[in-house]
Amino acid sequence: MIKILQEQALNYKLNPLLQVFCKSEIQELCKANMDADEHGQVAECLKTAFLQKQIINRQCQMEVATLIAEAKADIHVDPILETACTVDLLRYCSKVSSGNGRKLNCLRTLLKDTPNSLDTDCREKLQRRIEMFHNADDTLALPPEDMQQLVQQVVASPARKFFLVILMSVTGLIFLTGIFLGRATKRAMGLKNK
Question: What global pTM score does this model have?
Fold first, then answer.
């Protein structure tokens, strides 16, 4: 799985959702990087545009945020950060096992405690990635803007059956209330007219 995510990070064409939802952003914002798409420059351009809030399309924002969130789990999924921090990873985090963001957390701890111990390029890229992680978390946690997005979130939710049961219960309660109260008011009006 990590190998697939690495290949997707290096070539955006291997990520069909990113390619479809961010087509116009890639052509407008990342046109200069399209020739170097084998080296992850298009994905890096989209991440930078996301950080600078240049991406307007909500679906593209969600895809880029997901791409950034995947890199949070394992540094090997982000080849540009991994390349920039290879020396520091070998020097300071070689005994830390991979996965679950442990190597990235090691670098973050070093950045927080002793920022000058990290290589300049690694420090700058790591600071940008941390900022991207915060923006991605905020974007992925945003509430839906309209009814269509709400429906999409409910359909994609693992608790969609719960939502369906609640919706049906409320509808049934309204129906039963209407039956009983409707009959009571109709009876009172019938007695009044006699």
Answer: 0.67
